[in-house]
Amino acid sequence: MLQTHIAHRALRPAVTISAIAVIALTSAPAKAHVKWFAPYIIGAPPKPLSAVFQNPWFWMGISLVVFFFILTRAFERSRFGGAAFDALDRATGPLWPRIDDYIRVVVGAFFVAIFAVGGVYLTPDLKTPAEWVSWLQLLIAALIFSRRTMPVAGIGIIALWLLAARDYDLFHLLDYLALGLGVAAYLIIEPMKEEWRAHRFEVLRWGLAIALMWSSLEKFAYPEWFYPLVVEKPFLTFGMPRDVFIPMAGVAEFTMGFGLLWTALIRRLSAIALIVIFTAAVWPFGRIDLIGHGLITAILVAVACDQNREAGALARFKRHLPSIPAGLAVALLVFVSGYWGLHTVFYGAEVFSGAEPSEKATHSYSPEYPHGPESDIGIGAPPNRKQVQ
Asked: Which of 85, 210, 243, 251 is deepest in the core (most CB within 10 A)?
């Protein structure tokens, strides 16, 4: 008993310092989806990769995160690791037996909320004039509350993504592919037999991790998209220069997503850090941020509560400390080459279909016709986006 008490006292500072250090690398705007609040042009050429990899703040952020991940993994492997898991399990124990009910309620509430908002596919930046889309989202919410109809709701989410892909640039929709598929897969397999059902939280976690790592690359490819937010809300940078804060925020978002795929203690602490950040983002960004990130927060709560202590995929590889920088390097290579490579495939290396970056436009020709002059996504012109001045 005395040894357990001593172990708990010893582990608290290390766990707390690691968690706070990771959280300090992030901030609210790192998790606010920029396309919901500022002008953007998807087809604009991204910053060259040489500019990204020559940025010293990028490498400083990577170095700090690798250090704290290695520290956390070493602690997890130590004799105090079990006590750390016990403390986390006690803190999250009341919610863990009802976590499926929690996720279903949040997913249902999310679709009710976007039904009430109206005029969007799944997220605030995917506008549509089609009224029936909102009613389809209300139907999805209703289907979630019976395990028999949950798979139909999952199929409905995939259908909404495909409808949005019809109306919007496919590259744009890649931001929401992994998360949408993760939530849909959860709804489809949760009522199945246990051999399938056992993987329901894993598909949620992978979907969210991929979505975070993919969307974080906007901060390196298009840092100018974030400038209006920094001008309008300068307190978000905590006094850091704009061009220091944005790449560090991008590193934080990418590595937190990566952390969700690693060993149990790293992924649970990453989830807790992200919960704090997403919650903090609601104050400066309001209800849009709360609704838009509702699904993400629910998945993070599930990851933080998950009492499975296994490392998951590639467990033998993750066991060793050098695997952290090696795994992060591989993840960066895959996602960076995928983002810049697919952008080139969709839009070419130099030209793009859109307004000049200095104009207040969305992702295509003009604010009045954000899908281009030939767009025909419904009756009448698409609704105007609110422009950030």
From this structure: 251
Query: Roughly how many angstroms between the first and final C-alpha of the chain, as a whole number?
Result: 61
Q: What are phi and psi of 238, to 5 degrees?
A: 55, 35
Q: Is 385 helix (H, G, I), strand (E, B) or coil?
A: coil
Per-residue pLDDT band at 212 (split at 50, 70, 90): very high
Task: State the angle between helix axes of 264-292 and 294-305 in degrees (0 to 180), rounded to the nearest 10.
Answer: 160
Amino acid, res. 53? F
pLDDT surpasses 60 at 386:
no
pLDDT band at 38 (very low <50, low <70, confident <90, very high): low
Does residue 13 register a pLDDT over 90? no
Q: pLDDT per residue over 98-122, tens digit each?
A: 999 999 999 999 999 889 888 888 8
With contact defined as beta carbons under 8 Å apart, do 250 and 216 qualify?
yes
Alpha-carbon span 20 to 88, nearest angstrom: 16
pTM of the predicted model as reported, rounded to 2 decimal places? 0.78
**H-helix segments, the chain:** 2-24, 28-31, 49-53, 56-77, 81-92, 99-117, 131-143, 150-167, 170-173, 177-189, 194-197, 200-216, 218-221, 227-232, 242-259, 264-292, 294-305, 315-318, 323-347
At residue 127, what are phi and psi to the nearest 5 degrees? -75, 150
Q: What is d(CA 350, CA 303) in angstroms, rounded to the nearest whole number?
A: 41
Nearest to 284 by CA among 217, 248, 230, 240: 230
CA dihedral angle for residue 131, residue 133, residue 139, residue 141, rounded to 10 degrees = -110
